[in-house]
Structure prediction request, 212 residues.
Amino acid sequence: MDYSKLDGLIPAVVQDHATGEVLMVGFMNADAVERTVQTGFATFFSRTRGALWTKGETSGNRLQVEQMLVDCDEDTLLLRVKRLGDGNVCHTGERTCFFRDYVRDS
Amino acid sequence: MDYSKLDGLIPAVVQDHATGEVLMVGFMNADAVERTVQTGFATFFSRTRGALWTKGETSGNRLQVEQMLVDCDEDTLLLRVKRLGDGNVCHTGERTCFFRDYVRDS
Prediction:
């Protein structure tokens, strides 16, 4: 992986494995990628807290990785996941973080 | 939109509107977002060239935006698109940039 373009981070797109719905985008550093592969649960690097966080570690809404794809130039990951818990990925309580139309609702 | 987290840029996930397939991730600045909305074709900011580029402007494989969604904290966009031209989005000739399994193929 090429972590050089964003100061050690890469974007990771999270997609529902069953429905194809795009749920969120997080950032990972090399440690987060390793933790994700080792545990099978999506783990990100929090830019605000400067630490790793496993999505759903408190809420129970963890993201179980079914497939992990890398893009052509190795600077982005796509995680196809199964939603655990109540399945609401967004901290607002929505299923996905992408619930608002940019043009119509802005 | 919040462009402050990545020095004026936001990630933009491109998804096939019909199939749900995630095709690529690019970066946009405010000008690229405006150009995308105005023209209806996905336009990104090239970090290497330091300039806007409309995907497919030379190949004809443009990405016609069917829906543009913003995430909860307004720092990421999701573009649901129709593929024009031969429909191969990746510069390698693949349909999608995410054609390689990170775990199995690395």
User: Anything to note?
Assistant: Chain A is about 10% helix and 35% strand. The mean pLDDT of chain A is 95.
